[in-house]
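Trying the structure run again after the queue cleared.
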Amino acid sequence: MSVSETGAPRRFMWPADYYTGPSPRAVLPRGVTYGCGAASLVVLVVVFAGGAFLASGGMAQFMDFALGMTMGDVRGIYAKDVTAAEKQELEDAIEALRSDLRDGKAPVTKLQPVLEALRLTMADGKMSPAEVKQVAAAARKAK
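Done. Tokens:
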């Protein structure tokens, strides 16, 4: 005798009882499912539109914007021994790279060394003269 013959209620439901019984009462209103479906459709459209934008030159525009914002941060972390000429050299190299990005002359794929150099030099919160020259050289090489 594997199943109790008494009518005592069990603490759990067998899968067969679940699927043969009446449908459970809905937890959420019906409109919620339509709202979630619409939200997922909007997310898909935004993702595909963003991909199309980035594929059609938007990535270069984004990287131009990111380099401009990064240079704003860099201006505040120069070490005291960085000369005005070194600062100007970095500004000119980055501005030339940004201009080439806007004009489509510099491929986005060559920006990785510049971004890596910026990340490494900005990590400690100060940019020494050697680090300034390193970033400027990476920016000139990326063109």
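The radius of gyration is 30 Å. Worth checking whether this holds up in the mutant runs.
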